[in-house]
Design goal:
heterodimer, A: mainly alpha, 20% helix, 0% strand, rod-shaped, B: mainly alpha, two-stranded antiparallel ribbon, two-stranded antiparallel sheet, globular, repeat (chain B), EF_Hand_1_Ca_BS (chain B), membrane (chain B)
Chain lengths: 25, 213
């Protein structure tokens, strides 16, 4: 059984939190 | 020239002097002006009113204006400091400043806490973490059983809720992220260090004479 991840680790992978795409033209 | 520019910039409600914004943030005057180029392009993408509405923000973030995303909504709401349903230029710069590599870690921690405190009541509660986790799972087409979701939530609260009161308060959060610094990676945008090279056209539109930095 794989080790459980912390919810915040998973959440921080959301595309909606990756503001870097604002700078991609 | 000056007359032309001041007239055009009046079309941007909430436009603020780049020198003043630079003095309040980690950005140089040139970087604030480069951010104005970015702001202009986002703010005219759907409605050309000099402000960024939610649809424009989603379009800039996802290249799709109809993509609903809980986290993008949260970021938008926090950037919309005046809670008018739109982001003006001053708030755009000050909000992005939190993501600057040189911004104080404390500001980043506070912003992330607000981001995850969906109800804004000063605590990150289990139901909020569950809501975010389910949103993330549906966004990424990841399937987990209800039991696994509950186990992840249990683990999350064992890790972060130091005083075991069932909710994460600000000091729990500060403590937790200091032990898990990778969680703060999303709070720093290296792009902000190269903003003048990403948007070089700011030079032609600059209002400020003899840009120093």
């Amino acid at each position: 059984r794989p080790a459980l991840m912390n919810a915040f680790e998973l959440i921080s992978t959301s595309q909606g939190l990756n503001l870097g795409t604002l700078f991609e033209k | 020239m000056g007359c032309f520019h001041s007239k055009s910039r009046r079309q941007f409600p909430g436009y603020e002097d780049p020198v003043l914004l630079a003095s309040q943030t980690s950005f140089s005057v040139s970087e604030v002006e480069a951010l104005f180029e970015l702001f202009k392009s986002i703010s005219r993408s759907v409605v050309d009113d000099g402000l960024i509405n939610k649809e424009e923000f989603q379009l800039a973030l996802f290249k799709n204006s109809k993509k609903e995303n809980l986290f993008a909504n949260r970021i938008f709401d926090l950037f919309d400091v005046k809670q008018k349903g739109v982001i003006d230029f001053g708030d755009f710069v000050r909000s992005l400043n939190v993501f600057h590599p040189n911004a104080p870690l404390e500001d980043k921690i506070n912003f992330s806490f607000k981001l995850y405190d969906l109800d804004g009541n000063g605590f990150i509660e289990r139901k909020e973490v569950k809501q975010m986790l389910i949103a993330l799972l549906s966004e990424s087409d990841m399937k987990l059983s209800d039991e696994t979701v509950e186990l992840i939530l249990d683990k999350t609260f064992v890790d972060s809720d130091v005083n075991h009161d069932g909710r994460i308060d600000k000091s729990d959060w500060q403590n937790f992220v200091s032990r898990n610094p990778s969680l703060m990676k999303i709070m720093t945008l290296q792009y902000l260090k190269d903003i003048t090279t990403t948007f070089p056209s700011f030079v032609f539109n600059s209002e400020v004479d003899d840009i120093a930095t």
